[in-house]
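sry for the spam today, last one i promise. struct tokens for design, 347 residues
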């Protein structure tokens, strides 16, 4: 079992130093493995995270920023973007990808449980695939609530444990076996055994939503991607009892008609993109039909190949064409299924 290779200290409360050491070790191939394990969908999920941040947010904190994958979509003229992480090597990687002038993000190496900011000074906080590393999550959420202004936005993107349903056995197998196997490509395979176990510990989302409520956050929206394998939560910091959240007037007027009345950027699914989803659905149906036809053809050829008047090279060619066709269209069907189940890829 993969759990046997997980260091227990990584699950200790406030284990910032242990987390920093683990991510220092895997920083080299971290983004590549994330892309592989998300079937190439992590960019679309981060785009949904970016759209959850109000355009008028002037100070945005990306917590557990890692290699900075979430930073580019948060940049805006006039906005201060802060990237926080406990891993110095991850932040070095993030700094190498960012320019140092203009509206470049400011990177800080520190503990998420002791943020170096005054109370109510942050307009929005984003965190992508880092919430499950902050234990206990209620303490982390209280610290986020301390630095968020009343009415400020919290957007959390996180991998989730299998929910009940037909996809649960496949999801469970993927987490238990595929992720630890992929981790062998990194310098510290135990980090990916930890990743698998930490997702199960985080749960399917109900426990996190309870922690949000206890930390004085109001849940505004929840979404799931890849048949429930990833979740996105959008919450708002409730003001202390008896207070009314102040609304800061925007420095620039945004005339683009893509914001909701609350000021949050709507995702393509929320706005409605029927033409894109219809087109992907048509491609998915055609690919699935071709995959089924090739599978039937391969089965039929396997049962009758010996009686057909074909030369040896012709049989081999037929086997190769049918097998390659089935493999290619099977992969194509899987990719289209992931796209159809996820957010629209157009900005």
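last one done:
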């Amino acid at each position: 079992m993969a759990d046997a290779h997980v260091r227990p200290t990584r699950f200790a409360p406030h284990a910032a130093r242990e987390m920093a050491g683990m991510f220092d070790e895997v920083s080299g191939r971290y983004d590549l493995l994330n892309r592989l394990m998300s079937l190439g969908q992590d960019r679309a999920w981060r785009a949904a995270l970016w759209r959850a941040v109000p355009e008028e947010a002037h100070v945005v904190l990306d917590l557990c920023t890692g290699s900075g994958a979430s930073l580019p979509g948060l940049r805006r003229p006039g906005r201060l973007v802060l990237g926080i992480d406990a891993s110095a090597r991850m932040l070095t990687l993030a700094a190498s990808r960012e320019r140092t002038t203009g509206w470049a993000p400011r990177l800080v190496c520190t503990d998420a449980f002791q943020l170096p900011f005054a109370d109510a000074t942050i307009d929005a906080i984003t965190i992508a695939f880092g919430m499950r590393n902050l234990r206990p999550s209620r303490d982390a959420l209280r610290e986020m609530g301390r630095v968020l202004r009343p009415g400020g936005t919290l957007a959390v993107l996180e991998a989730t444990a299998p929910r009940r349903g037909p996809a649960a056995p496949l999801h469970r197998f993927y987490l238990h076996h595929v992720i630890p196997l992929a981790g062998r490509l990194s310098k510290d395979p135990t980090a990916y055994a930890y990743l698998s176990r930490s997702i199960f510990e985080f749960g399917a989302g109900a426990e996190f939503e309870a922690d949000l409520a206890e930390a004085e956050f109001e849940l505004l929206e929840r979404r799931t991607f890849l048949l429930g394998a990833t979740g996105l939560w959008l919450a708002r910091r409730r003001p202390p009892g008896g207070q009314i959240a102040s609304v800061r007037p925007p420095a620039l007027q945004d005339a683009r008609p893509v914001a909701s009345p609350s000021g949050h950027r709507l995702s393509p699914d929320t706005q409605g993109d029927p033409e894109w989803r219809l087109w992907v659905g048509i491609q998915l149906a055609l690919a699935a039909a071709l995959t089924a036809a090739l599978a039937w053809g391969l089965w039929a050829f396997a049962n009758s190949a010996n009686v057909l008047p074909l030369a040896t090279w012709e049989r081999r060619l037929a086997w190769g064409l049918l097998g390659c066709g089935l493999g290619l269209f099977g992969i194509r069907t899987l990719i289209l299924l992931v796209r159809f189940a996820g957010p629209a890829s157009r900005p």
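The chain is about 45% helix and 15% strand. ok im logging off now
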